[in-house]
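Intended use. Records such as the Triosephosphate isomerase entry shown here are meant for training and evaluating sequence-to-structure methods. They are not intended to support clinical decisions.
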Amino acid sequence: MRQKIVAGNWKMNKTLVEAQSLTSEIANMVEDEAPSDVKVVIAPPSPFIYAVENLVPEMGQIVLAGQNCHQEDSGAFTGEVSAPMLKSLGAQYVILGHSERRQHFSETDEELVKKTDNALKNDLKVIFCCGEPLEIREANTQNEYVTKQLTNSLFHLSAEQFKNIVIAYEPIWAIGTGKTASSQQAQDMHKTIREHIDSKFGQEVADETSILYGGSCKPDNAKELFSQPDVDGGLIGGASLKSRDFTDIIKSF
Ligand code: 3PY
């Protein structure tokens, strides 16, 4: 049985007090309403991780994530956050390779190899993002594009290491645009990704890898997306900033 996961990527939003209230609201709603077999990951901006970590219940259904980390443990990298820092703040996961990091901070597949290695070395699970831009989708070469991203950044790992990877498929044309991939488009890509993982790491690892859909996932489309056989949850952007919407998405399984 694959782990179902709903992860909220808050991006660069909220102040400390707002982050604390949103976390408390989510914690209460999840406790009262959410199915207990769904892992809930919250990725606030890194300065808030420590301050919100003690607001989530100890039993572990809700865990914290960083939105990025540097590839080195420490050093002269002004403004950066390292994996050991995230770990020491209470994070259990880190999101790597989000399309906004690739686009605005020029992150390359090669850099993501180093970041992934460093995150795993520091005992963080990785939510690894992949996804194609609009022109690739229009040229119908999205399968080649996405599988190459995965090969380039993750296929040097051992099968044992890969068990700590969650994949998030986020078509770039659906991020922050209000456009969502249809549930069939999501399923087709998730199946392709799973087969690609199988080709390298074997069926057992492929069957156990959670593959999340991201890109304008909302309460009104989550049910349909999550009902697809290879969609194991979502990486949620804007809707994760509202406790009601986020909880309704978690309840969509
Ligand atoms: C979105 O849905 O906008 C996201 O980028 C989630 O990471």
